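Structure tokens please, single chain.
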Amino acid sequence: MSQQLAYVIITPYTLSKSRTGGILARLITRTGLELVGARMFGPSRELVEQYSEAIVSAADPQDRRIQELIRDYILQNLSPDPKTKRRRRVMVLLFQGGDAVRKVRSVIGNISPDRRGGETIRDTYGDIILDERGEVRYFEPAVLAAPNFEETQFKLRLWAKYSDTDGGLLTDTIAYLPGETPQRTLVLIKPDNFRFPTGRPGNVIDFFSRTGLYIVGIKVHRMSVAEATEFYAPVKEVLRTRLKDVVGSRAKAALEKELGFRVGPAEQQQLGELLGPLYGDNQFENIVKFMSGRSPAEADPAQWKAPGSEKCIAIVYEGVEAVRKIRDVLGPTDPSKAPPGSIRKEFGQTVMVNAAHASDSEENAKREIGIINVAENNFRRVIEEFYGK
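Here you go.
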């Protein structure tokens, strides 16, 4: 089965309703495809017009009337607001795998006023409401996708063309009340959520949606050893010092069991002082390996800056008290101490394998967003590597 690249566009309305997580979970679990790219867009009028022109197609099995409604919807709802000139948020997801275009389209589904149940994404999140004369009163497609391989290639090249000017880490897309001061914070959906096709990445995002914050940046990222080492550098010294008592106690128990003599309090403290930093360094190596696929000790220096083997999703959330709100939903580092209903309680396993990371301050958020380089355009790179420049 030939490899294909497929896209899904999440509309501004769907984003505003925080339905992104549920949609992503369905796409991953029901298609079995790999999420290979994601980017936020604030589409310009030029991009919207060119994209809308390619919507009505004889190759699309969707009813022509619905196609025309989608075309008109795109022009009206993806373009910048005509009154405020503020650009609207749009998220584009890229999936790769065998028969990807058909699989994505089947999960998204078509739109019909006669739909039943919630089998497809559009059944659940889309709407078309007609009046007694059969005229459309309300229309929301929820997501957009191409009907075939050829149209996918054309449309993805179009979005790639505008991905620098119209996409990245969005600014001035959210209106705030007077006196409100928004913050930005970084979330990493960690590699333990991507071991096999599962709804976990989407489910974790769905938990974060309860904060009422806005996604303004997203990137599918593979941390290099260098990035992971820099990202977690503040943790290294903490590990070297904080674990001394734990290491001393465990070393005491091991020695008493193995050698059969008692280790006194002074000697236990000395063991902690001696072994604590070594244990902390080992834990730091494990963290870097967990996030990048290679520890600093085993990585060739020439590979330090190369993308790692482990995948994560980096998301920038914006809003009032963003740092606190995200940390509250995430829960403490140790899942065993996390409260019910928190992400780490629901999805975490250990202190390291704990589902997600979130910045603990505005200052650290800026530092971490810079290290991950969320604005970097690897979205276009994925498209150009697949189709050729």
